[in-house]
Amino acid sequence: MRGPEFTELKAFAAIVEEGSFVRAAARLRVSPPALSQTIRQLEARVGVRLLNRTTRSVSPTVAGETLFKRLGVAFGELEDAVAEVQAARDRPAGSLRINVPRVAAMRFIAPVLGDFQRAYPDLALTVIVDDMLTDIVEGRFDAGIRLGERLEKDMVAVKLSDDLQMAAVAAPAYLEGRAVPRRPQDLYQHRCINFQWPGSGSIYRWEFSRGKRSLEIAVKGSLTVNDTDLMLNAALDGAGVAYMIDYQVQPWIEKGRLVRFLEAWSPSFPGFYLYHPSRRHVPPALRAFIDFVRSRR
Question: Residue 139: which CATH number?
């Protein structure tokens, strides 16, 4: 493959990944007009249209989607080959792309970013915070972090946390003059803070279990958020009952700013895992990242 052809394919892949000519141009450090010309040359060479363009969005055609999937495999092989060469160096280098939901980013990634950059100054790390359960293979990510119950079976998974538990909580000011829920059904008598899943827009139904009995509750309330920090702040401010992962609210319970209830009904579930596609060789950069995060969890 000649140099210009490889450049065209890299440009095409960047546009699909970013969903934007402008963002892809910034990533590739070229101007949007130059990037548009590159794609026109690629489409002229292959003889088919690869991208659907509007004034607001860009997406691959059927032919473009097929090409993009094949390129993901090919580029992965090339990156593996480069990684094997880099393994002989004293410290990992190159690039690393991680996909992680916000709650995991704040728990596992944010606390180590500074130390990791100082330990591996030659490694270009990109962290994409994403709550939409993106396919890391299609998105050409090296790894991701996800709850164990949402892992694909063909992934290599490294455990980052123990099992977790949900916690129903409310501020003492909210509970004043109200009956503390003793059963999940009691939540119907309370203002609850709903959570809307990013991307799908669906509302999370609160899940409870005790012994062999399990149920889901579509709680009622006038406040809906799609961010757990907002939910926590609203609960602390007395806006209503929140249902969150226990470690997120435990410090506030210990300080007396939140009261926990329905603990016997709150189910446990697999914790967080760092996962990546199965390959013959784990790239040194990814291995360094995995070891670094695990050592500081």
Answer: 3.40.190.10
What is the domain range of residue 28? 1-68
Q: Quick: pLDDT tens for 259-289.
A: 999 999 998 899 999 999 876 678 889 999 9
Residue 76 lies in a domain: no
Quick: pLDDT tens for 71-107. 877 777 777 666 666 555 556 888 999 999 999 999 9
Largest CA distance in the chain: 75
Q: What is the distance of C-alpha 51 from the center of its chain?
A: 26
Given 3-state DSSP classes, what are the helix, strand and coil percentages for the chain, each rounded to the nearest 5? 45, 25, 35
Residue 120 lies in a domain: yes
Give domain status of residue 206, yes or no: yes
| Residue 230 included in any domain | yes
- Number of structural domains in the chain: 3
Rounded to whole angstroms, how far apart are CA atoms 127 and 148?
20
Q: How far apart are CA 233 and CA 175, in angstroms?
A: 16
Query: What pTM did the predictor assign?
Result: 0.68
Sequence-ordered list of residues with C-beta below 8 angstroms from that of 82, at least 6 positions apart, any chain: 94
